[in-house]
Amino acid sequence: MSDIIQLLPDSVANQIAAGEVVQRPASAVKELLENAIDAGANKIQLILKDAGKALIQVIDNGCGMSVTDARMCFERHATSKVRKAEDLFAIRTMGFRGEAMASIAAIAQIEMKTRRHEDELGTMVQIEGSAVTSQEPVATAVGTSISVKNLFYNTPARRNFLKSTSAEMRHILEEFQRISLANPAIAFSLNHDGVEIHRLPASGMKQRIVHLFGNNYNQRLIPVEEETSIINIKGFIGKPEFAKKTRGEQFFFVNNRYIKDAYLNHAVSKSYEDLLPDDHFPMYVLFIDIDPAKIDVNVHPTKTEIKYLDEKSIYAILHSAVKRSIGRFNISPTIDFDQETGFSGMITHKAPEEIVPPSISFNPDFNPFAADKPSRDPAPTFPRTGNGASRDASAAIVPSTKGWGALYEVANHAETAQQQTAIELPGEVILPDDSLVPVQKQLMQLHNRYIISQIKSGLMLIDQQAAHERILYERFSKNLDDRKGASQQSLFPQTVTLSPNDFELAKSLLEDIKNLGFEVREFGKNTLIIEGIPVDLGNNNGNETQLFEHLIEGFKNSQQELKLSKRDALARSMAKNSAIKSGAVLGQQEMNTLIEQLFACQTPNFSISGKPVIQTIGLTELDKKFDK
Fold first, then answer.
1. Three-state DSSP class for 20?
2. 3-class DSSP state for residue 147?
3. CA torsion through residues 528, 532, 534, 536, sign
4. Res. 139: pLDDT tops 90
5. Predicted confidence (pLDDT) per residue in 30-61, tens digit
């Protein structure tokens, strides 16, 4: 029997290695940009076509390469950064394994032009599927220009598994953001299909953040800086009030290399304890400088994970530095022990407010045993509150303090008023159980959070926010399926400017967003104009921009946490952001309509999060509480 174990051909081995290094166009972009940075460039251009599937071109003004280096850089394990094994523990450059260029060349068609400062002519190398097709002198600018065409052209299975253009573009934007944040002293530009998405001049760190994410971030940032014998920390964190429901704007850099580290992320999140809800995440861009000998960056193919010698000390220092910055900029509550609180009004230029002593009123003729009639003073009326609901004045009668006999009459009057103002539930409401049919058909709001109704077997409680979310979710889902979301025109159209990532996401969702009832169109660079909103949202008080931003943020959160389909995540996000919240005051008619619409839903008993919407308490359970 002949031997069956054989060495793989280089072309096949390179394609297998490419699967580890180049997973999608964004992977190739990352490797090429890092090589340009290592070449000492201070200006880097990234040009894309079809989200990198047709073309990825990186042009830099770095040191360039010689004729020999231009050919050698495409060989496996060819690198200029590592000479011996000990060098792996003193790495401060980006690319060092010598696999990237060989892996990219195995699955694409490459053309590279490069020239050093001291050379009069440069070199052009053309490679197709690891095979060099030509190498010749060429007139070119100092630096390097690499064009990667038709990625995965010879591995169609990999190409078929790529996502849509907008999805792949979002991955490229993420890599571009990480690299440009880590190198603010380098000027970057990004063009996609002939449209300029980013032009970032060389600047400081804060200016780079603002250029990437928008001018509104200028007021959201808090600086962080800490120097110790173990690590040095610098960067910016976001103010708590601007936290989001997704982790998209959280960046850690160790020795200028982007990393993902849940342990360090917990140190930052813990610093915001009691300042943020559990489902909100702060924004941060933090740089950790540490001795390369104390870390190992060669533990993951994408080099986004690092091992530390002293994790606990780094955690403690990071947590302390962020906590101190939050307190220093008066974000968290602090006490000034150098100032007497009684003199705080005198420190300002305004005169202190006049102090009015409390007054006590009493009736000197009050006799609790007198059987006088109740006072004829008119009953006070309550102002309109909440969503326009007002309380019935007849139910707000306050008895005069003239005699205990008045209490009985007031109680009788209140009972009569309740019977007169009772509002019946419509007969066509579909209830899941006959025992849930209200007996008195009277609704009441408890702490502006729950709706209470008496039923045959006891009482029924409904979570008003969860109920409204269920109603809107089923309505928006139907609109998306039928493509018939009704819209109401905005009196004044509003523009919303998004980050490049969110803008690409919004463009991919634009058709479904219009099916919900929005009237939206593109309006320049990273900007949309909102001309109408769904009629289900009613009067939104001109907050269309905020509503749209929350819609996009909620969509990202739903897809990340629950892995939902695009339409389901969109309907869920819309329902959560548009529903009435706990604390909203509802009138009788509003509660009546809410219950009618709830029991018309396909799944009225459960919220869109899978939690109960309705709870019943039976008479037997109530009797037990009173020891009956």
1. helix
2. strand
3. positive
4. yes
5. 999 999 998 999 999 999 999 999 999 999 99
Tokens of 458: 């006891």
Amino acid, single-letter form, for residue 509: L
CB 220 within 8 A of CB 209: no
CA distance to 9, 345, 499, 507, per residue, from 512 (Å) = 48, 54, 20, 10
pTM exceeding the 0.85 threshold for the entire prediction: no
What's the longest Cα–Cα distance across the chain? 120
Distances from the Cα of 376 to the Cαs of 354, 372, 373, 592, in angstroms? 36, 11, 9, 34
**Tokens found for residue 17:** 């290695």
Phi-psi region of 221 (alpha: psi -120 to 50; beta: other; left: phi over 0): beta
pLDDT of residue 576: 85
Q: Counting every residue, how long is the chain?
A: 628
Which of these, 170, 174, 147, 151, lies nearest to 161 by C-alpha position? 151
Can you tell me the distance from the alpha carbon of 249 to that of 265, in angstroms, rounded to the nearest whole number?
12
SS3 for 574-600 is HHHHHCCCCCCCCCHHHHHHHHHHHCC
Cα(16)–Cα(11) distance, integer angstroms? 9
Dihedral of CA atoms 354, 357, 363, 368 in degrees, nearest 10, equals 130
Write out the two tokens for 32: 């090429």
φ, ψ (nearest 5 deg) of residue 540: -100, 10
Q: HEC profile for 362-393?
A: CCCCCCCCCCCCCCCCCCCCCCCECCCECCCH
Token pair, residue 148, equals 């990667």
8 Å CB contact between 110 and 127:
yes
Q: Which helix (H) or strand (E) holds 251?
A: strand 250-254
Residue reference for tokens 């020891």: 627
Phi-psi category of residue 289: left, alpha or beta, with phi > 0 → left and psi -120 to 50 → alpha: beta
Interatomic CA distance for residues 94 and 502, integer angstroms: 28
Structure tokens at 72: 């050698």
pLDDT tens, residue by residue, 218-246: 888 999 999 999 999 999 999 988 888 77
**What's the pLDDT band for 378 if we cut at 50, 70, 90?**
very low
Q: Cα separation of 280 and 295, whole Å?
A: 31
Torsion of CA 481, 482, 488, 494, to 10 degrees: 40
| Structural contact between residues 275 and 330, judged by C-beta atoms closer than 8 angstroms | no
Task: Give the chain's radius of gyration (CA, Å).
Answer: 33
8 Å CB contact between 601 and 474: yes
Show the domains of the chain with their CATH numbers: 10-202 (3.30.565.10), 206-328 (3.30.230.10), 365-421 (no CATH), 464-598 (3.30.1370.100)
